[in-house]
Amino acid sequence: MRQHRLLRQPPSWCHDALSSCSSATSQDFDASWVSHSPSPGWKDTARLIVAHDLLNYSLVDRCRYTQNAAIFSKRVAAIRKACQRHCDMVFVDAPHVIEVPSTATGAFEQFDSAAVTNHTEDTDPALIPRAWWRMKEQVGLSGETQLIYQGFDQSMAFLRQVIDNQGPFAACFGFSQGAAMAAILGSVVERPSLCVAFSHPPMKEQLPFKAVILIAGFKISLPDKLYGDGLEQNQKLTTRSLHVLGRTDAIVGEDRSLPLVEAFLNPRVVWHDGGHFVPAKKNWRDFFSSYFQNLDDPNDSLVPNPESSNENMEGPKI
User: Fold this and answer.
1) Higher per-residue confidence, 291 vs 121
2) One of this protein's Pfam families, by short name (predicted)?
3) Is residue 193 part of a domain?
4) Domain extent at residue 212
């Protein structure tokens, strides 16, 4: 079986549901890896770091998301299989365990999720929901409301350690909150001076990504310098970017996705006819496979867009 890897079990200091987040460096993390047996020649393929999305619990809207590396890897299993000749996908668990409202059964069957709400120290890590950050509102000194991305700095330090220990990586692939994080990761790998966690100490082997693949990605309201906006001449990000957006996405609409597209110098935008999910019908599997196969070619226009499909567009189910 083709290898894909899961990074699990972040340090115990993260297991506080983000009730208090302090600064951290990459040395604070002790990560372990769970992987399948590799097939011959897997080291000759491009290695991708993959960031999952966040669980969003809503009884009213019936929103459903995957929420950790194990569940996301299952959701995109068809894509993994189609691309296995061209890339080695490394699925990374976000470092923050999140607490969500309990249900009668302690699981999220109604949200098409295997995650559990009543997790304990003995719970399988593959069932625990995680996040890259939690967004909260905070009233500033002048009375204005500010958005705080709690846990973001810890996630950046965590990803720096992943790159140091498991890299170098050729590209980054993310969905929803994971895509937002993947875009920032692409930015700071391209320009390490934008983030202390990536500039000190300097990275030894990791080069700018050959591409960032952003599914339902959005730009978050952090300092604009993380996207290059604060630099002289307002330089945009030069890392090759693929933005896959859903025409009926009610979670990440154009008002959120297009500002991220505009942060890149030469973005490629490909639309699908569905909502908030990673498209995985055959035409899309073939597209992703061809895209990764041609990752070394700077002219990604040689990879044609997915052919239109008459199939009902739905997200992959576990």
Assistant:
1) 291
2) FSH1
3) yes
4) 11-302
Return d(Cα 137, Cα 33) in angstroms, integer: 35
Of 185 and 12, the structure prediction assigns the larger pLDDT to: 185
- Other beta carbons within 10 Å of 41: 8
Q: Are 183 and 260 in contact (CB under 8 A)?
A: yes
**DSSP H or E stretch at residue 242:** strand 241-246
311 burial type by CB count under 10 A (0-12 exposed, 13-18 middle, 19+ buried): exposed
Q: Which of 77, 10, 79, 87 is nearest to 43 (CA)?
A: 87
Residue 197 counted as domain residue: yes
On whether residue 187 sits in a domain, the answer given is yes
Rounded CA-CA distance 80/53 in Å is: 17
**223 is written with which tokens?**
């300092």
Rounded to whole angstroms, how far apart are CA atoms 188 and 203?
Answer: 11
Per the listing, tokens 């909150």 go with 177
CATH code where residue 73 lies? 3.40.50.1820
C-alpha to C-alpha distance for 177 and 28, rounded to whole angstroms: 23
Q: What is the pLDDT of residue 310?
A: 47
What is the 3-state composition of the chain as percent helix, strand, coil, each rounded to the nearest 5?
30, 20, 50
Kindly state whether residue 185 falls inside one of the protein's structural domains. yes
Q: Could you read off the pLDDT of 248-307 as tens digits, one per residue?
A: 999 999 999 999 999 999 999 999 999 999 999 999 999 999 999 999 988 888 899 997
Q: How many domains does the chain have?
A: 1
Q: How far is CA 313 from the centre of its chain?
A: 22
Q: End-to-end CA distance of the chain, in Å?
A: 19
Cβ burial of 168 (10 Å; 0-12, 13-18, 19+) is: middle
Place of tokens 């952003």: 214
Q: How far apart are CA 75 and CA 90, in angstroms?
A: 14
* 18: pLDDT strictly greater than 50: no
